[in-house]
Please model this.
Amino acid sequence: MSTKNYVGGFGDYRSSYKDEYGYNAPDYASGYGFYAVDFEERVNMDRLRRGRLERARQKLFKEKGLGAFLSLDEKNIIYITSTYRPFWTMPASGLRYALLVSTSDAPILYEQGDIGYHIKRMAPWIPAANIKYAITGASWIGVAMGKEAREAQLKKMVRQIKEDLKANKVDKEPLGIDFYDEALINALRAEGIQVEYSKAVEAMIEARMIKLPEEIALLKMAAMIGDAVFQTIADTLRAGITEYDILAAAFHTAYKLGAEVWNGMFVTSGPYTWPNLRATTGRLIRPGDVVYFDTYNMAYMGYRTCYYRTFFVGRAPKSIKDAYQRALDWLYEAIKAIRPGVTTKDVAEKWPSGPEVWGWYGVKDEDMTAGNNWAHGIGLSLYEPPIIWRAVSLDYPVRIEPGMTFAIETQEGDKETRQGVRIEEMLVVTEAGVEIITKWPVDEITEVPIVR
Model:
């Protein structure tokens, strides 16, 4: 069944908005230019900054009862401070950290060395007095210093944090922390600070799971860049080039449009497409090859993509097209099931059991299908809750709510050619169902003609 049939059956998610006259209204959130202008609001970054901070405060302080929150997890630092993040601080380097207290609206940012100088000028929404220099000693950077140096640095770091807790009158209240660094937690407790790990992690997961309208707009803009990457791949792909040539062209398009690639994007071809290696080897592309590409971990303003499409060099044989159709049906039957109020079990049940369909190459249980047919939340990190996967969702369902955002992906192998296909969509859960935000055609495998 093609997506055209699905559209006829349960609504065209790509034109789901109506204006006051009943016409399909343009979705401006996925049609913005990437630069600020005076004639159109586009993404309201101030509202994004305030909205994320308010959601974090609500979950941390009002619902979990914490007095303060210390963040070393870069995704959460971004969420509460909206500050610049170089690659090397991901995911929790200890090179910078942030403190949020229940008695003050503004976060305190402890920034790495020279970068702090610039952040004071770049981030006027944080009072200059709240931007301080980090004392590096936690996480992997502390381990790299050696045991004695780390212990000395942690003592200084804890004193710094304790002073700010006291100044804000929350030093006797529980301090949430989002990264489990045993040495840091012990050092904080040695100073009489009550540390809570689980509550803080739960609060930030809950805050980030439901997206603000501005976050959804940024995810749509990231998906737009993904669309452009696939056009570049279609223009570049041919027999006689290597996977690295394709990857280089994709990176060029992503950065040209203002994206960042944290550690992702790969191209897989030929015999590596089944089972799915999920990596680039650099092999030479040949006629008759399946080639698929994943824009995973490409980000726009920090918001990630995970977005597969599959190509064939030449005319795809029937066995490949049949495999593609099975993957497409699994994908869209699952999408059809997603709507507010259902659970992840309702969606996972739309997929066949792993041993049933893939036993022919050794799959014996669902634990061997991790990442095959599944969906995951997506936002400031590649994998956010909830996960939809038969191995967990059938027994531990999670309720789906409006404002959740997913990447949903399926794959299938072809016994005849020993190659496989992989496809993926990104979507937003709306009050009415879902809206698909990825646009590269998915109805059939994209064939790249061989020029004679």
Observations:
- The first helix runs from residue 3 to 10.
